[in-house]
What we know:
Layout: H1 9-19, H2 40-47, E1 55-57, E2 78-83, H3 85-90, E3 103-107, E4 115-117, H4 134-137, E5 138-139, E6 142-143, E7 156-163, H5 164-167, E8 179-180, H6 182-192, E9 201-205, H7 208-215, E10 227-228, H8 233-238, E11 243-246, H9 264-273, E12 276-279, H10 284-293, E13 297-301, E14 312-314, E15 318-320
Parallel strand pairs: 7-9, 8-10, 9-11, 11-12
Antiparallel strand pairs: 1-15, 2-3, 4-12, 4-14, 5-6, 7-13, 13-15
Helix pairs in contact: 1-9
Amino acid sequence: xxxxxxxxxxxxxxxxxxxxxxxxxxxxxxxxxxxxxxxxxxxxxxxxxxxxxxxxxxxxxxxxxxxxxxxxxxxxxxxxxxxxxxxxxxxxxxxxxxxxxxxxxxxxxxxxxxxxxxxxxxxxxxxxxxxxxxxxxxxxxxxxxxxxxxxxxxxxxxxxxxxxxxxxxxxxxxxxxxxxxxxxxxxxxxxxxxxxxxxxxxxxxxxxxxxxxxxxxxxxxxxxxxxxxxxxxxxxxxxxxxxxxxxxxxxxxxxxxxxxxxxxxxxxxxxxxxxxxxxxxxxxxxxxxxxxxxxxxxxxxxxxxxxxxxxxxxxxxxxxx
Length: 321
């Protein structure tokens, strides 16, 4: 799919969903979707990419200064101390022989900062991943089948950075509303001298996070953004990647390319393709290192928190080069 009619989202989504579906590919009981492309040999390959032992956290901070502004009840984390050094110094904690301590708690939506979208996050016409009925998958008790805990040990693979902001953009950044096409992805990979291979976790840097750090959050959480074009659905399917992550709130270009649509690429990628999507990743330090050393692949460890029944999870991805 290389062109689209902005007035016909329903037809385009239906066509792409049918064409790029992975339903049944890994059996009727599958819970991992495209993470099945990561096998033991792929993890050994990824480990062999470590040469300098340098590590990069690809996570934003989890604090009250984050990007959220309340859309669909998503808020920034609220961090509260339960015990402090003041309590210890005053001796009111009730512990013996002078020992004291500190404890804290955090309350937050699971997708308020750097995170994975799980396979129970998005439905297509009432269908969840692998053709299951949405109402039997996610209930008030959570995701009963594809909860994020099923992926707790799976997301370790070769990571590939496609720094489209540097390769295609201006001063390392793409403007909001810029639709990244298959041609842009291919040109970026060629410029970096790297190939995208089966089982890879592809990290796409647009530079939007760089910009909002400089200028303020603005509408980062849900507003206009550079991102993948709906026309990349075929590439995402054919490349057989395990997952994809971006430095933006919503992975795909916003405003979306269809009139009156909302996240149409999600609707194809998650419930039909079984693709894991990472959002709000901080790729800047890694990108600078990749540019400095001319290497754009690395070992990537990005385990979600095994929160039983969750449809997404915070993550602190670690790239090791």
